[in-house]
Design goal:
Number of strands: 19
Order of helices and strands: HHEEEEEEEEEEEEEEEEEEE
Helix content: under 10%
Largest sheet: 5 strands, antiparallel
Number of helices: 2
Strand content: 25-35%
Length: 271
């Protein structure tokens, strides 16, 4: 008997206690039925989401979860089906290729690094809308906070990776692939204890912003933020990066999130 049913039985018993015992039969609960409410309950936290809009069909949604893989809905979020069960269940990022809606990228390992967090094993790609998946590298990234695809060139992909949480090193920082994930370059790395916390791109794909975060977890302690944390910008598609300091608080900085206003790319928000 489920917990909810147990509570229901207890409530009926309390409500009728003054009138004496009642007989419980299958017909007593005949009007109750279970219904799916999507991946939010059975798969833990929702860690990533992306979608494809169409004038002729409902929105197609891809939802990444903390401990239940990736789910897909073809009817705007009414019904979901799991499409990633044979791979890593901890998901950090999901991204649809803007130039090809059948190409889906998944960065595994959720980025909300509690002491019970589960790591991932890198990046995956599907070229048929999520039916089949191929591992595309960065196995030691462990936790991926963001994954971006160039709006016009689907071969150019950026990954914001945390690396090893419980130790130094791993695939850590901002990575770029220019050949559809066949090879990766670590285009922004500070050191072996500073991770990428977030990544944003302007609508034309030319300028990127990255939050870099000193983070280290121990069994009984969590170090977050330090002198190596900061906000960085690249205006040449990831070739070179500069730290942004004008207007940014001095000293140690914690985890940084950043986003670009799509309607006004010169407007950037960071927290």
């Amino acid at each position: 008997m489920s917990i909810r049913t147990t509570f229901c039985v207890a409530a009926i018993a309390l409500a009728t206690g003054a009138q004496g015992a009642i007989e419980l039969k299958s017909s007593t609960f005949g009007g109750l039925s279970a219904r799916s409410i999507g991946p939010a309950v059975m798969s833990g936290r929702i860690s990533a989401i992306d979608g494809v809009a169409s004038d002729k069909a409902p929105v197609t949604l891809y939802v990444g979860t903390a401990s239940g893989g990736v789910w897909k809905s073809d009817d705007g979020g009414i019904v979901y089906k799991p499409i990633f069960d044979e791979h890593t269940q901890s998901i950090g990022a999901v991204r649809v290729d803007p130039s090809n809606a059948e190409t889906i990228w998944v960065g595994t390992g959720e980025s909300w690094v509690r002491n019970t967090v589960a790591p991932g094993d890198g990046v995956y790609r599907s070229t048929d809308g999520g039916s089949k998946w191929q591992h595309m590298g960065l196995k030691d990234s462990d936790h991926i906070a963001e994954l971006l695809v160039h709006p016009e060139n689907g071969d150019v992909v950026f990954v914001c990776a945390l690396g090893h949480l419980w130790a130094e090193g791993g695939d850590r920082g901002v990575f770029r692939s220019q050949d559809g994930g066949q090879t990766w370059d670590n285009v922004l790395k500070i050191d072996d204890t500073t991770s990428c916390s977030d990544l944003a791109m302007t609508p034309d794909g030319g300028t990127l912003y990255a939050g870099m975060w000193y983070v280290q977890r121990y069994p009984d302690f969590f170090e977050s933020g330090g002198e190596s944390s900061g906000l960085y910008r690249s205006t040449d598609g990831g070739d070179t990066w500069e730290e942004m300091t004008d207007g940014i608080p001095e000293g140690e900085k914690g985890r940084i999130a950043v986003t670009v206003a799509a309607s006004e790319p010169e407007r950037v928000y960071a927290t």
